[in-house]
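Support reply, case 0932

Customer input (verbatim):
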Amino acid sequence: MTALVGRLRDFAKARAVSAPLQPVDLGLVIGQVSRLMRAHCEELRSRGIDVEVIALAKGPVPPVAGSATQIREAMVNLVLNALDAMPAGGTIRLRVRELERPATDRRPPDIEVAVEDDGVGMDDETRERCTEPFFTTEARSPQ
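Our regenerated output:
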């Protein structure tokens, strides 16, 4: 997990050079992602797979510095991965909330974003390798 966080920080630093950070309302972003996924969910339902993507914001959260487009893209990718992990259907919950801190803590707030699903989870091998670049569990077609 430490390695993954380090790579995410490196990625964020590289992006910071190319695009100025803007205030992003994560509650708005998860709502947009939920709406964006509706057509995909309808298509899956037409094939008998009952899926739903819902956005849950626990109260208003302060904006974070970032790129709404990049955050939305990352969230859509997480949702698509979660849908792949639910071949029998289920619910994906997108959550955003401000983490509680003591009143004496003057640092900027920490905001938590979570993507939770009813999927099958990861086996031990996948869990060990999931942070490797280009690792996939998708079956590859013969060349």
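We compared this against your earlier run and they match. Two observations from our side: The helical segments are 2-18, 26-36, 38-46, 68-84, 124-129. The chain has one domain: 22-129. Please reopen the case if you see a mismatch on your end.
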